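Sample A.
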Amino acid sequence: MERWRRGCCLLTVALVAAMAVVSGEAKLSPGHYRTTCPRVESIVRAAVARKVKETFVTVPATLRLFFHDCFVQGCDASVMIASGSNDAEKDAPDNQSLAGDGFDTVVRAKAAVEKACPGVVSCADVLALAARDVVTMSSGPRWTVELGRLDGLVSKASDVTGKLPGPDMQPDTLAAMFADNNLTVRDMVALSGAHTVGFSHCTRFAGRLYRSSAAAGPSYYRASYARQLMAACPRDVGPTIAVDMDPVTPTVFDNAYYANLADGLGLFASDQALHDGAASRPTVEGFARNQTLFFEAFKEAMVKLGRAGVKSGRGGEIRRDCTAFNQQ
């Protein structure tokens, strides 16, 4: 009987381990590459610093790329895949506005890592590190990045639909979307603070802007801000024209975004709705008063987001080229 029990227990452990591999569950750790690529963080940081020096667009572009990757099928660098058929995640309508500088940052950092540690570090981990580094390099907080992700094996434009926060979404809809990624309302408000260094193409908010000229209320712009935006984004504006999301300190990662919302300076309806929503407003007001509080919440939320949909075992790979799946 005792022998049977031991055998049964061993079989159970084996089955659990096998299920973890098949399901893609993974345990992340800051020291994942401690022995296999000990300089990975400094290598990525140096590559990111060079890119930021070339253009500040690197900061919001890389941070937004991380968000868009993690919200669709998890943090697996599937957004990086370039498809000859234009049917990968990056080709989806909601990803068309992703700036090329974000992709270039990851490609450069990965190339530098490959020279030192070929075939060891995933593109998903490079992107996670780069997202942290651009925040730090724009006067924002620094946090410990958990590592050990694998790169995804699938990238489909059709998977993006309904997965990403939109500029006109209301708090309840946004909260449900964030909850799907194990993120709370507080996390949602904190991560929205990334808009303090963001920019947006005029076409993303033109509808709201020109409705505001004939309407009033908390969902619309402060009059002086609306005039400023109309000057930058006339009705016939082209699709490439963009404006800063934080009109006060656009190149500094700070808590000005939240104070802006209280002043009616939220660029997106979804931004302003955070201030007007009963569930989110106390957090917005708290972050507006206390930058340290915001920074701590942002760090915590970024770590939690980085755990979304992590791949492992047969559920992923370590790509040699971030823009293409490995050839089997």
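Sample B, a different protein:
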Amino acid sequence: MSRTETMDLTKRGMLQSSGCNRLMDRAESLKRDSVMSSGGSAKVRGSLERKKSKSFKEGESYPSLLITDAPGSIAAVRREQVAAQQALRKLKIAHYGRSKSTLTSFNSSKIVPLVHPHPHPHPQRCSFITPTSDPIYVAYHDEEWGVPVHDDKTLFELLTLSGAQVGSDWTSTLRKRHDFRKAFMEFEAEAVARLNEKEMNAISIEYKIDMSKVRGIVENATKILEIKKNFGSLEKYIWGFVNHKPISTNYKFGHKIPVKTSKSESISKDMVRRGFRYVGPTVVHSFMQAAGLTNDHLITCYRHIPCTLLSTNR
């Protein structure tokens, strides 16, 4: 064999050996990939199996009610909300009726608070009523504030109390309400107007009421008698400023409620002209709120709707 043929055979053998080596390397690579893939999937399956609930049983079916009716589920909470809304609607219909024709039959002489369907025992009130508010003040808010008043004696009383709370507060004034009634003969304007200087001084000492305020109340009684001669009653005079219909406001926040308005300023101006005392715009606006000439209950307060309905029934 020549030298050239020997070199050709050697090259061919080296090429065949190189090709075999490449095939073997490829096979080894595929085998490693297969092992790694099967191992990774096994790890994933293992982690998933570990996350399954212990009470979960493979192959069993579970009804959807166990999910939707479970306590605390979104569906259960939503159903409770809808049920509460429907209950509130039924209560409103049963209490006030569906239309204005049924509203007119509502007895405006007595306020029956709307039963609140919320399980919480305390209904939502105006923001100035807090958990630390005096019970007498809370009762005044719930039963009187914003309720239209058409009785002359009660109007005289509320006008007096509104003036008396200047420099003080409503809670302190309401605590002395009984003393005011005793001192001024249950606010009979005719009897109060006849009080002389000696009697006024005795009232001031006995009931600890400032003498200037006692004189002011007596003078207001004499002006009320003049009002009755000219208008027939104090009620007709006062309610004439609002066309005998309460002003219904829609305040959302307590700080939005004004201390005086253009209406209270016009009423104050006329009363001062007629000789009334302690009837500034702020006092008059407080009197308007107390006597129900304006309903300043916040729209979030449970008393807003009943007081608004009373304004439509007269």
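Observation for Sample B: The CA atoms of residues 181 and 271 lie 23 Å apart.
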